[in-house]
Amino acid sequence: MSSSSSSISSKRNVEFQPENPCYCGLPSRVRTSRTKDNPGKKFRLCPNSMQFVTFFKNEGPKCKFWEWLEPETPENEVNSGKDKKESCNLTLKVSILENEISICKMKMEQENLVVRQEFEKLKWKLFTHKVVMIVLFLLFVFKK
């Protein structure tokens, strides 16, 4: 763990990480560096570290736990580039699939309209056939 000078963000921006305790078992706190060398870089430290010990107490820091949250390495930078490219590719694929789904829905609606129109025609034919059958039946019955 390297130590580097970094300033502490205001208390309202404190992020606790109970799942990542420091050496003394307390939940570590996540802060953001405001230094010229590491602006915006996040780090974890113990609440008993030097940054949290008040200057009014004559005590030194009880715990010296401190670490960068995400160390910068060339490998991470390469991976983040690959991740961004992969993310863009996935976004493009999702857009294409959404477009294809929209086209399929539109085709289904058109086919549904055609089917409903054909069904209405068949219903009308059935009705006319029933009427013809009734008329023929009545003509047959009254001719006798």
Automatic annotation (TrEMBL):
Residues 1-21 are annotated as: Disordered. This is GRF-type domain-containing protein. Residues 1-10 have a biased composition (Low complexity). Keywords: Metal-binding, Zinc, Zinc-finger. It comes from Lactuca saligna. Signal peptide: none annotated. InterPro entries: Znf_GRF. Residues 22-72 form the GRF-type domain. The keyword Metal-binding applies. GO terms for molecular function: zinc ion binding.
